[in-house]
Amino acid sequence: MRGAARVELKSLKSHQDELRRQKASVTGKLTEARRLLAELSPSQRDQVTGADGTDDTAPGAASRSADGTRQALERAGAVAAPDSRAAAAVAYAFAKLGSPYVWGATGPHSFDCSGLVQAAYRSAGVSLPRTTYAQIDAGRRVSRSELRPGDLVFFYSGVSHVGLYIGNGRMIHAPNPSAPVRVAPIDQMPFAGATRVV
Question: What percent of the chain is predicted at pLDDT more than 90?
Fold first, then answer.
């Protein structure tokens, strides 16, 4: 009897730890969505929050809320990707906003910078190398003026950081251990180059 109780307790503790991780992830995503929502104009904000007359208590409100958050993120910097695989990679990265940075992690719950890019494209059926140093040679080089959503953007002279371009001078990236996956301007770091993989 005691052995079964120990096993059950261990299982419950493991489940509790997983719930804590999921809560932290959701909290991070919510914080990022609120920050992006604050960047919208009052009319855009009304549209997203339902102040434009939509009934957020009706059936399907959760789906509309998720759609509204996605639209808010798009208004905050994302542009439709011209290639369906690039669009799928960008959508994957959006879904991972708020995920923690862990060096060497490739998902699905935590990432480093190149791991996020690799996982995003893997979700779209495209295989990429693991490191930034190899990823920069994985596709066709493009200039900064040619950037399209889904392009890989690289930073620093040693090509030590990568993000996924989403349009309007912005990217989604896993910055460092003290910051979760987030949207940021590409001007935030010294630009080293870009690659188009699809």
Answer: 58
Q: How far apart are CA 191 and CA 157, in angstroms?
A: 8
In this predicted model, what pLDDT tens digit does every residue of 183-194 receive, in sequence order?
999 999 999 999
Q: Could you confirm whether 15 is annotated as catalytic?
A: no
Active-site residue, 161 included: yes
90-102 pLDDT, tens digit each: 999 999 999 999 9
CA 20-161-188 angle, to 5 degrees, is: 90
Structural domains of the chain, ranges and CATH numbers in brackets? 79-196 (3.90.1720.10)
Percent of the chain at pLDDT exceeding 70: 64
pTM of the model: 0.63
Q: Is 109 annotated as catalytic?
A: no
The residue to which tokens 């699905």 are assigned: 108
Q: Which of 36, 81, 90, 113 is catalytic?
A: 113
Question: For the residues of 145-195, what is the DSSP string, one character each?
Answer: GG--TT-EEEETTTT-EEEEEEETTEEEE--BTTB-SEEEEGGGS-EEEEE
